[in-house]
Amino acid sequence: MEATSHDVDLYTIGKGILKFDRFDEDGLPTGLRDLGNAPNFSLAPTEDTLEHYSSREGIDVLDWERAIKRKIMGKFTLDEYDRENLRIALFGELGTYAIHLLTAGNILGRLDFVGTNDVGPKYHVELWNIKLKPTSDVNLVSAELASIDFELTVQNDEANHPASPYGRITLIGES
């Protein structure tokens, strides 16, 4: 049974396994792959609005507002420098031994997160169609443990998932 609000069992120290299925140049999946240790993963919904202000008084007063854009962005960090992670971070092509820099177009795919935390509810996050963008340097020399930061944008996949075109989050243990 799911806990209700004001329940200390809902406090969370998040942990989990992040996997990515990179799409090939034809948009086909290449296989879900564990990305290694991901010390953070977060999602952030955003909304742009159109506002109207009445000019009938001494100061303009907001009298109408409507959403015109909504999207979900996300971020994660990887600290394992395997060849596939470096390919993503450096826009390298799929399936080559060497990493050929800047030879891939957009990095598109499916992201899958399974919560493994000991504290708080565990969630399974499935994002059907995302665009990845590296946002940090790929440090090949560092005095500390190196990591690579990424941003993601969730894209619509209504053709394959009409009931939930952007993805879904499921409480693990419930259907």
Can you write the helix and strand succession as a string? EEEEHEEEE
Class derived from helix and strand content:
mainly beta
Which range does the strand content fall in? 35-45%
Q: Could you list the spans in which at least 5 consecutive residues all have pLDDT below 50? A: none
Largest sheet: 8 strands, antiparallel
Written overview of the protein:
15% of the residues are buried. Strands 1, 2, 3, 4, 5, 6, 7 and 8 form an 8-stranded antiparallel beta sheet that branches. The protein has one helix at 83-89, and strands at 16-22, 33-34, 40-54, 61-78, 107-115, 123-134, 148-154, 168-171. It has one domain (8-171). It has 175 residues and is mainly beta.
Provide the descriptors you would attach to this structure in a database record.
175 residues; mainly beta; globular
How does the SSE layout of this entry go?
Layout (H helix, E strand, L loop, with lengths): L15 E7 L10 E2 L5 E15 L6 E18 L4 H7 L17 E9 L7 E12 L13 E7 L13 E4 L4
Antiparallel strand pairs: 1-2, 1-5, 3-4, 4-7, 5-6, 6-7, 6-8
Quick structural gist:
The chain is mainly beta. It is built from one helix and eight strands, in the order ββββαββββ. The chain has one helix at residues 83-89; strands at 16-22, 33-34, 40-54, 61-78, 107-115, 123-134, 148-154, 168-171.
